[in-house]
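Hi, here's the filled form for the chain we discussed.

Project: internal
Contact: R.S.
Residues: 504
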Amino acid sequence: MLLIHPPIAKPSEPPAGIAKLSGALRAHTVPHQILDANIEGMLHLAAHAETGNDTWTRRARKNLDNNVSALRSPRLYDSFDSYCRAVRDLNRVLSVSARSLNTVPGLADYSHQHLSPVRSADLIAAAECPEQNPFYPYFKRRLAEIITEKKTGMPVVGFSLNYQSQALCTFSMIGHIRKEFPELRIVLGGGLVSSWVKQPTWKNPFAGLVDHLIAGPGERPMLGLAGITNGTHEHYLPNYQSMPLHDYLSPGLVLPYSGSNGCYWHQCSFCPETAENNPYTPIPVRQTRTDLSCLIGETKPVLVHLLDNAINPALMRSLADDPAGAPWYGFARINSELADPDYCLQLKQSGCVMLKLGLESGDQGVLDALGKGIDLSAASRVLRNLRKAGIASYVYLLFGTPPETMQEARRTLDFIAAHHDAISFLNLAIFNMPLCRQGAGEFQAKQFYEGDLSLYTDFKHPRGWDRMLVRHFLDDEFRRHPAVKPILKNNPPFFTSNHAAFFA
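And the returned structure, exactly as it came back:
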């Protein structure tokens, strides 16, 4: 088997999805190979980009090798300004590399002038003309090397498609394999595919192009394709050893690990996890600790990235009581434990460098209406405690939800301003209504993206707080507030939360 992580996703750490698949295959001695076409393809594209005519592009191209090396060195992260220049220069090289193909690749996104990742017809069009993809020279050569060498033992090629930014490139690679190696079976899975399949109106448009679509965890289906149906179980140690661990653009290896699928809270209105009815399936804490001990011993990471939608409180308590042996960060719910200053100090001593917090709103009525289970007075204590303990906070806000108006949004601004000294980073987002949410029709849903693969819909806001008004508020008032503006400037460009911990 060949497992592929396609472009484009942030190239700061190895892909956790195919590491889990590889761990399952390795446990059953199934021959397989991993291809991180994301990091390989980006580096290839940047190295072969044209110099360009403008001063910025010429400078960025000239300093390409130095910037790539610098992003892998801790020294660069001592100067935020130097870091920003290196990242923006690298993104510039990528973004101008495919102008003739009407595409704009980047460190965190991929766009096409005519093709959209939310239209199945466009994904099929990408598969029909793979040579029009800017990564084509790379993946044509690389796939030929791997598949020709392993051809007799590689009947299955699996793609892990998790983000819309990967979709067009994924289907270009699928189309190329279909043309050049038609005898191979193609499997498509990953988070984005799971969300597609769970839409109430889903009809598979990719029959004949993709042999198998996998929704949800892929370990058991992939083992089944390898002919292994007995003796399988739910959990396997992820395998990162076959990945290019020194190539990622971070100052040392960042080890991603997930101790659960789904969210243990599972009560937030309008959350995609709730809308898609994804079950919460935690790995037992003892097993998680065993995994982390093995993986940290094998890979010697500079940072552990816990990928859980919200870290299990029992796991967090375990980490506080018995440090994992490496610095770590991840998403956490604002809860009563974090309102305890001694507990926050214990987390810091365990290696916690940053917590991402889904606050969403600074208005208690909005939080209650959204089912967040967050008390603003507790949130205030949590932010103060984390700051005192030396743990960075990456706070996520969501504007334009059905219970919010300008008045509530201004209360959010007041809350953030009052706690500006305790907030390290901010993420601002405008609410999108999940298509598969029960009752979405009550909000007079209307077309948001023109595409049959869209996961979200626009809607008529019940209180008139539409997207245009929200954007004006964010641009004209929120982002310009003197207490907020400095926090927003802290956000690492393109890599955002994936690199924020290095500046904590």
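Let me know if anything looks off before we file it.
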